[in-house]
Fold:
Amino acid sequence: MKIFSLNIITLATIGAISMSSCINSQEAYEKSKLSGFVAEQTKDIIIKNTPKPDLTPVETKIQAVEMRVDALDADNKNAQEVLNKLEDKFKTIENLEKESKTEFERSNTSVVFFNSGSSMLSATSMQELYRWKSSIDKAPSTYTYTININASADKSGPQYVNDRLRVRRAEAVKKFLVESLGVKANVNVVTNQEAFSKTYLLDRRAIVSVSVK
Structure:
């Protein structure tokens, strides 16, 4: 009987302990749940009450910078268009200048003739050189140019005689241009001009021309 009573007491004690443990676990769970709720509420309160930074000044500055960049792009575009137009004009002027130089060279070429075996300038040749010099002086465009004298001789006579004759003819023309007509430009003398026609009169000549620099 005593043993039975003891077992009952023991069971009662275990039950009480188990009940106490359950109560304690439930309380811990409730506290944990409450703690999580408080944490979430605290987080929401912090987020709601934290002041947001005012980005308006920064955004205003960014807009101002963007407007300046757009304005600079527009200015650059306009400047490029102006440069393109100027380049086109320069090209046009350059082409006209080239045409003008070519025309100047073409229109200022003269030919004087000599008697057979002679390097003496005739009155007609002197008049032709004077006319040529006057034409250059009256030209509307002023260029820096070199005078070219190409002297030739016909095929009659020995080669060495004709070589010397070409030199004398070129020097006679150069001397008249410089000393009598006062030419200041550089003079380039070419004396290897071979005869090219069957008419000896045409081969006894000196061609005076200009080359624009």
